[in-house]
Hints:
Number of helices: 5
Number of strands: 7
Distance between the termini: 40 Å
Helix content: 25-40%
Low-confidence stretches: none
Amino acid sequence: MNILTIRPATPADLPAITEIYAHAVRTGTASYELEPPSLDEMTSRMEALLSRGYPYLAADDGGRLVGYAYAGPFRPRRAYRFMVEDSIYVAPDAQGRGVGGKLLRSLIAECERLGFRQIAAVIGDGSPNSASVKLHEALGFRHAGVLEGSGYKHGRWLDTIFMQLALNGGAATPPDPDSLPERLFRQGL
């Protein structure tokens, strides 16, 4: 592995992002999608997040995209505006090399900078020994619940694990009126 750089993702990254995600959908259980989305669909998803100011990051290993992460709305109801849900995907040949940790640390920092108060990790096939659960635990996320048998993929029932990390004082202080969630709220978004 060359020098790993975490940077904002761009539309030029979308073919690699689409390929990484397609592999996760086809072979894994982290995503409950059953069919990989097209490049056009992945483009629409990225544009929807970036147009509202949500963070979308890329892990660049010497010019090759080896992972990506983003935060998006946890739920559509406006009272949830201070909470985001993270997503992290790493190319198969880059897994186990710290890429996910670097992406998640950077994503947490960006969500804090934007003024969010909570990050939720909604982990498909969230067995206690899964790499995603262990990564989130290592970065301070606490367990917040389990939806047992909530997904069915690759011939088996899957549990969904909820984990949560408070940011910027969590629920202990009032919202920052200059935060991204408050600006979006004032714009009616």
